Amino acid sequence: MNKEEILSKVRTAFVAVLEHENFQLSDETTANDVDGWESITHMMIITEVEKTFDIKFKLMDLMNMNNVGDLVNSIQSELQ
């Protein structure tokens, strides 16, 4: 699965949790860029992403994620 396909599915997970589509996701996107992406919804987004891709992130991976690009890279790594 390429990065564009992963990003598309990640966006779907964000929409499911945040219940709006008023945002753009790119590698540089952070929680400050998306309305409603807060600490509680962050964990809900991570859970939704794990369900979507049938993966489980390691704690260190989660701690090292600073933006959507890091999330996509972690997903890609888990899928390989």
Q: Any overview of this molecule?
A:
The chain is an all-alpha fold. 15% of the residues are buried. It has helices at residues 3-18, 39-53, 59-63, 68-79. Helix 1 (3-18) crosses helix 2 and helix 1 packs across helix 4.
Brief write-up:
By secondary structure, this protein is mainly α. The protein is built from 4 helices and no strands.
Give the key terms:
80 residues, mainly alpha, 4 helices, 60% helix, globular, Acyl carrier protein, PP-bd_ACP, ACP-like_sf
Structural class: mainly alpha
Count of distinct strands: 0
Largest sheet: none
> What percentage of the residues does DSSP assign to strands (E)?
under 5%
Bulk shape: globular
Distance between the termini: 9 Å
The whole-number mean of residue pLDDT values reads 96
Number of helices: 4
Question: Secondary-structure element order, as H and E?
Answer: HHHH
Radius of gyration: 11 Å
Q: Roughly how much helix do the residues carry, as a percent range? A: 55-70%
Low-pLDDT stretches are none
- Assembly of the depicted chains: single chain
Organism: Aquimarina rubra
Domain Carrier: 1-79
Pfam family, one: PP-binding
Protein name: Acyl carrier protein
